[in-house]
Amino acid sequence: MSEFKRAHLSNEPAFANLRSLFAKYGSSINMRQMFNEDPKRFESFSHRLQTPDGEILFDFSKNLINQDIMNGLIQLARERKVEEHRDKMFKGDKINFTEIRSVLHTALRNRANRPIILNGVNITNDVNEVLAKMKAFCEQVRSGKWLGYTGKAVSDVVNIGIGGSDLGPLMVTEALKPYGNSGPLKVHFVSNVDGTHLAEVLRKVDPETTLFIIASKTFTTQETLMNAISAKQWFVEHAQNPDHVAKHFVALSTNEEKVTEFGIDKKNMFGFWDWVGGRYSLWSAIGLSIALYIGFENFEKLLDGAFFVDEHFRNAPLEQNVPVLMALIGIWYSNFHGSETHAILPYDQYLHRFAAYFQQGDMESNGKFVTSNNQQVDYSTGPIVWGEPGTNGQHAFYQLIHQGTRLIPCDFIAPVHTHNPVRGGLHHQVLLANFLAQTEALMKGKTLDEVVQEMKKTSLTAEQIERISPHRVFKGNRPSNTILLPKVTPFTLGALIALYEHKIFVQGSIWDINSFDQWGVELGKQLAKTIEAELRDYSSQATSHDSSTNNLINYIKEKHKSN
Questions:
Q1: Which of 40, 267, 395, 457 does the annotation list as catalytic?
Q2: How many CA atoms within 13 Å lie on the side-chain side of 270?
Q3: Is the dihedral of CA 420, 423, 428, 429 positive or negative?
Q4: How far apart (Å, rounded) are the C-alpha atoms in residues 105 and 39?
Q5: 3-class SS at 281?
Q6: From the CB of residue 353, how many other CB atoms can be counted at a distance below 10 Å?
């Protein structure tokens, strides 16, 4: 059990105060009116972080908030002891109370090299040892000194993992393509146990020049091990000698016995620790594919960016603490406005996997219903997180955000400068114009009178205008955050990821749930083992499940038999 006790959220005075504020302002607060009445609203509700790679701007002014509401939300964070909980995380207290573990992904990017003592050991030294080993390995592979079984240098890296061992490295390597495209290596990712995923990647690579990274802490993850064994089988069929596996496979794991049994040299095993959760692990050896692709110096800049935000999160007062503010505004929508989803909308093609990454980061962390006091919540917890890059989303689902019946808070993210100034930067200018227009349109909307006046300038008749005009009305008052990066760089990407990590932490802290376990993924895996055996048994019908599952199993078996 956790020693960090708090009252039930709905019993907190600050929570009751926010309910009163919602009753007072909830249905009447109007952003368009607030902007008209306060020309300095942007200055009041925006924040800037000065980084070595340039300024990052956060505009929270297009939200259904005023100063009274923000003051109430800050007070909630104080009553929920968010700062105390944060400090416990950074110093290694076992805040993952269901697994009795510390939560120290921040130690992986402790660029100040502060001692962090856990069970009498300075884990900063352990982290630095793994980073040094990663650096030496990256230099060998990227320089062409690491040779395959035919004496050729590595040209392709295939990362085999799932969940946090896949989503983070995949997202980051896509986001930092400008830094990897000029390098010597291509990277590929295999996660799905569906054989198609592996087959499609293997068609693209040459066994003589391919390095496989098997990312599994325990080296027992079903999907990862199945893909790893199949990749090894493919490799040995070509290499004609299982001893060559040692030159083409490395492991990100802590299970030396299983790793060496697989055929991987224990010298090529990169460890990490149980105080690193999978969805927070890209900063560890799990990020080896990132470091190989963009180079270790750029990987260190990724760590630097995250550390920069860690320092901000640790030291900035709540009123100026960006991840805290992001979290509190999200609480306002989830727990008072009844919003059930949150859209992440990056206007940068390199960030096309960012929303998918934080689907896991947020939903696996805060998709919980039991508090640290073993009480079921009587309030909403983690939102459904989703999104796509702009401007693609504008031609897909923005219709519902603008004119649908659901309130969907959105994060709009864009770089001021692009890596690809096509046609003198014209493409990026058009992209940014759309980016800015969407947040304005969501906030401002368009009244019936404005629609009618606009339509009168066309050739439409008065009768047609009366018939059509209600369908062109935008109610507006739809909330959004705007995040402007100077450019997508390793540093700014590291900072952006850490901002969302800490936002998730703050929300989980306020809801008093454990953001660092994931028991919800276990039941399906447990049932799958039983069903897998039944699918292989053609001698009898499945009868041990409900009628739906029994019949579905038997249907698939019948179809397989007929083939």
A1: 395
A2: 27
A3: positive
A4: 41
A5: coil
A6: 18
Phi and psi (nearest 5°) for 153?
A: -75, 160
Is the bond preceding 210 in cis, omega lying within 30 degrees of 0?
A: no
Which of 174, 177, 479, 484 has the alpha carbon at shortest distance from 346?
484
Give the side-chain half-sphere CA count within 13 A for 185. Answer: 29
In this predicted structure, what is the pLDDT of residue 2?
42
Please give the model's pTM, rounded to 2 decimal places.
0.97
The per-residue DSSP string of 306-317 comes to HHHHHHHHHHS-
Matching residue, tokens 């040094």? 132
Structure tokens at 446: 């368009």
**Rounded distance between C-alpha atoms, residue 154 and residue 433, angstroms:** 42
Active site residue 139: no
d(CA 35, CA 39): 6
Give the H or E element holding residue 158. strand 156-160
CA 279 to chain centre: 8
Residues near 533 by beta carbon (within 8 Å), at least 6 away in sequence:
none
H/E element, 55: strand 54-59
Q: For the segment 342-384, what is each residue's pLDDT rounded down to a tens digit? A: 999 999 999 999 999 999 999 999 999 999 999 999 999 999 9
What string of H, E and C letters represents the secondary structure of 475-513? CCCCCEEEEEECCCCHHHHHHHHHHHHHHHHHHHHHHCC
Cβ 507 vs Cβ 327: under 8 Å? yes
Sign of the CA dihedral running 462, 467, 468, 472: positive
> 386 forms bridges with which residues in the sheet?
343
Residue 279, CB half-sphere, CA atoms under 13 Å: how many?
21
Helix axes 82-91, 296-315, angle to 10 degrees: 140
Query: How far does the chain reach from its first CA to its final CA, in angstroms?
Result: 53
C-beta of residue 413 within 8 angstroms of C-beta of residue 57:
no
Report CA 20 to chain centroid distance, whole Å. Answer: 33
Residue showing tokens 């939300």: 73
Residues 395, 536 contacting (CB under 8 angstroms): no
Distance, in Å, from the CA atom of 192 to the CA atom of 211, rounded to the nearest integer, reads: 19
Could you give the CA distance from residue 233 to residue 239 in angstroms, rounded to a whole number?
10
Residue 159 identity: N
**The two structure tokens encoding residue 157:** 């890296």
Q: Indicate which residue of 174, 300, 364, 388 is catalytic.
A: 364
487 among known catalytic residues? no
Helix intervals (H) in 367-470: 398-403, 422-444, 448-455, 462-468
The set of residues, in sequence order, having a beta carbon less than 8 Å from that of 130 and lying 6+ positions away, is 270, 271, 272, 284, 285
Backbone torsions φ then ψ of 337, nearest 5 degrees: -85, -10
Helix-strand-coil split of the chain, %, nearest 5:
55, 10, 30
Q: What's the average model confidence in pLDDT over 530-554?
A: 96
Handedness of CA 365, 94, 324, 431 (dihedral sign): negative
Q: What is the pLDDT of residues 222-267, one digit of tens each?
A: 999 999 999 999 999 999 999 999 999 999 998 999 999 999 999 9
Catalytic residue among 91, 145, 525, 560: 525
**Token pair recorded at residue 496:** 């952006």
Active site residue 91: no
Q: What is the pLDDT of residue 3?
A: 60
